[in-house]
Amino acid sequence: MIDDLYSARILTLAANMPRTGRLAAPQGTGHRVARLCGSTATVDVSLDEIGRVGDYAQTVKACALGQAAAGVLGEHVIGATGDEIEQARDALRAMLKSGGEGPQGRFAELRVLQQVADYPARHASTLVAVEAALDAVRAAERARLSGAA
Question: How many Å apart are CA 123 and CA 55, to the nearest integer?
Fold first, then answer.
């Protein structure tokens, strides 16, 4: 049942999404659109002196599932590396599409979305904020390497 998809935890994460808005001077920005449903996520990041996420802001217009994933990101992303976000994205995608166990470590709470695997039309919305976050971090890393940040 689709009612089982929207657990109390998912609805709580969606309703209390932290770090909303935009950063005044981000080092990197990522924007993703889930074409099937129109969900969008725009993420701004600044990296600290060792290349970890030091500041983060997100604007997410998605269903409760996409907002819940963004809620997990907002709660746990400060201090994360790009590689950690990439591993979380890959593990979330595998969990949704091929029965994977789901993310480990700081983003393990994304496993709350495991039941979304049964609803392929919801996969893109669930992934949109994570993909935008990874794009933002990679853009900040490129800017740092080129001396722009």
Answer: 27
Work out the widest C-alpha separation in the chain, in whole angstroms: 51
pLDDT tens string, the chain, 149 residues long: the values are 456 678 888 999 999 999 999 999 999 999 999 988 899 999 999 999 999 999 999 999 999 999 999 999 999 999 999 999 999 999 999 999 999 999 999 999 999 999 999 999 999 999 999 999 999 999 999 999 988 65
Q: What is each CA distance from 21 to 42, 56, 85, in whole angstroms?
A: 9, 9, 20
- Domain ranges, ordered by start, for the chain: 2-142
Give CATH for domain 2-142.
Answer: 3.90.1010.10
Q: pTM here? A: 0.93
